[in-house]
Amino acid sequence: MKWILPSWCLNRWLHTALLFLSPLLIAALVHSWLTAVVMERRVIRDLDEIHHTFAKGLQAFERINIKSPFATLSFTCSEDDVSQLNSHLLSPVTVRFIQLELDNGVKCSNIGPALNYQIDQRRTLQVAEQSIMIATIIAADDRARSLIFIFPLGPHQLVVLTNGSVTNNLLSTLCHDCYQLQINYRGLKSLERGVDVLSQRRILIEKSYYDEVLDANFILRAGDKQYQKIGLTIAMFLLIMALLLSSIAVIFYWNWFSARVSTDTLIQNGLKRKEFVPYYQVVIDCRTGQVVGQEMLVRWRRLDGVLVHPNQFIPYAEDSGLILPITEHLLEQVYLDLPQLKGWVSVNIIAQHLEAGLLSKWLLSHQDVRVKRISFELTERKPITEFELALAEISAASPLCHGFKLDDFGTGFGGFSYLHQLGINSIKIDKMFIDTIGTEDLKGAVLDAIIAFGHESNMDMVAEGVETQVQVDYLAAKGVYLHQGYFYAEPLPLDKLIHFYNNSPH
């Protein structure tokens, strides 16, 4: 025996797979873009930190009143002078070497022996009202070149050599072997730090920052290696988030599907047990007080005695298509109740009833004078998509029944277009508009417009949701005489409806 999974089960697993894989697919699609965005922001952030670290010490050093820390210098390069050269005020981390050069040619430094250096290019930098000489030393290439600051101290001068390894260490700390930094002081040769060769076959991001005080431009470049490192981090993050979203989506879907299947099963079991029963709400001619008809309203009375409110199952039944067998079941009950009912009976239908051609088939299978008292109220909760099929069904069913009404007129999808295209000549004025009677609600003008349209178009009009004498009088004055609502009676099961008939004064 060949075992085949039912279609709903296959669909369930297909939907589950799609829900699970969709976040993963989206994560894969956005990975490259998100990695590039994060990388660009990281480069901007790291450039700011690099500049801050590089420039902070030099700016602080340059802004010192250079004469103050050396007010007690003997300018003899004695031990006391060397000790002051080691002062923390004059030796920040960015300074590698500081040397005092006397006018007599004697030199001493913070590390003892004097440093011999050769200046490549130089220019004057004006900082805090001080003229400072800034220069680069002669080196084999831009990577080995260092920066020197020369501060005048009367006839003497103080020489400060920057520490290039600080910048290299910082670049390595931010991202090992990822960055290439170029520092350009105007009028001087460039200084380069970081990796010698930057791999950039896949991506290159370059950001610059200009320091007005130092009159220098910092250019930071990042390439493939940082992209790979950030990409790996982003991939792990996206994978975790995608798996989390996938799991949540699948859990919600299975819970929803289980509830749907449960509701589906309950409705189907309710149909088998004939738990769906008709209640009837009378339509009264306010001029005579007589019952001219009634609307059949479905109620779900479960075997355990629980009465399920229509709003709890009708929307689902319409969405799932179960409203069709429910309607067929109720039509059979209405057909049996008709001998005890007065006037016509309206049964609610949706677009699907018309498009599927179910009404004419049922009417043809019950060719009895009784079915001529059944009318159908087309609700507008769902739009008609197949107008030709709907029109054909109305044309086929109309001669066999009491006709069609447009329910909840003015609140749904079709309204006037349905009346024109489908040839319906009876409308029910929705309770939403009836409630405006006696109030200052702006929808009251809409009610008057609907009534005027109904008269001009020779429409049969039924006002539903009538609850007060004020509403009764207003509608009667406007020429709307057929009323339905709690002012007259609530929806009643057949036995109570018959009791209402018997106790009605007319």
UniProtKB/TrEMBL annotation:
Highest taxon of source: Bacteria
UniProt keyword annotation of Transmembrane present: yes
InterPro entries given in the database record: Cyclic-di-GMP_PDE-like, EAL_dom, EAL_sf
Residue runs in coiled coils: none
Keywords carried by this UniProt record: Membrane, Transmembrane, Transmembrane helix
Domain called EAL: residue spans: 260-505
Pfam families linked: EAL
Keyword set includes Transmembrane: yes
Annotated TM spans: 12-34, 230-256
Protein name, entry field: EAL domain-containing protein
